[in-house]
Amino acid sequence: MAMLRSTLMSLAILAMLVNLAMAANYTVGGANGGWDTSSDLQTWASSQSFLVGDNLIFQYTPNHDVLEVSKSDYDSCQASNPIQSYSGGTTNIPLSSQGKRYFICGTSGHCSQGMKVQIDTLATSAPPPASPSSKPPTSSVTPLVPTPVPESHSSSPAETPKSTPTVPSPTPSATSAKPPSSTAHKGGFLVNITMGIIFVMTMLQAY
To answer: What is the pLDDT of residue 174?
Structure first.
């Protein structure tokens, strides 16, 4: 169990490291744009695939800022009730959860001029942890078993029953049969043992 827990913990740490290594930084507006009124911000955002763990980087001049707002405030360009507000010229916002987020510029008239962007963050796909198996591994090797030799039904002349004419028996005791001889069973058992010994010796010689 200790080894299993260590393996699962290692897989979890590996998944976290993979996510960190795959995290991307997106400058809002792209290489040819920015957080301003002249960039087609929504077209830029639609062309990207944002994943949990990525970062948004807003770069802007002092006459702009960044407000995170609700969907209704985004649609109406309402800046009076922001969820978060940022300023300072450079803002780094981590995308820490799946879902849609909405950003606008709080400067009067800038949002209605197109300075707004909707970010749709998708979940990262991590490999599922290995599930422990409670059953021991089964061997694919089929043991070789000597093939049983069918019992011989041939009997010696002394054991061959004599045919007697069928006549009415005056008493019940005359019709009672004798128990069958066990000589044939013993002979088959000895043949099986002999074949088994021959098989084992053949396998030993092969190796």
So the answer is: 40
pLDDT digits (tens, 9 = 90+) for 69-104: 999 999 999 999 999 999 999 999 999 999 999 999
Residue with tokens 């061959």: 160
Q: Token pair of 172, please?
A: 């019940």
d(CA 155, CA 161) in angstroms, rounded, equals: 9
Rounded to whole angstroms, the Cα distance separating 105 from 132 reads: 51
Which stretches does DSSP call E strand in the chain?
A: 25-27, 50-51, 55-59, 66-69, 84-86, 90-94, 99-104, 116-122
Give 173's contacts (C-beta < 8 A, 6+ positions apart): none
Q: Please list the ranges in the chain whose pLDDT falls under 70.
A: 1-22, 125-194, 200, 206-207
Burial (CB < 10 A; 0-12, 13-18, 19+), residue 192, is middle
Cα three-residue angle 142-147-153, rounded to 5 degrees: 160
